[in-house]
Design goal:
Layout (H helix, E strand, L loop, with lengths): L3 E5 L17 H14 L3 H14 L1 E5 L6
């Protein structure tokens, strides 16, 4: 199974915001909009599903070889 691996030197506390906003690259935006247009699903739904899918396949490695 393929994994999405992020390498980080340290941990930090996750931020909790009332109205979350995340900026993405123009390339990512265009991919989301293409899927949204083809499916009729909202961009918000498409991005949320993609993030949840990728998160399930993500692995985080820290400088001390610790994994989350």
């Amino acid at each position: 199974m393929n994994k999405l691996i992020f390498t980080s030197p340290t941990r930090r506390e996750a931020r909790k915001r009332e109205k979350p906003t995340i900026r993405i690259s123009e390339e990512a935006y265009e991919l989301v909009e293409e899927i949204s247009a083809k499916t009729g699903l909202s961009s918000s739904f498409v991005v949320s599903e993609m993030v949840k899918f990728a998160a399930a396949k993500a692995e985080i490695k820290y400088g001390s070889s610790e994994k989350l």
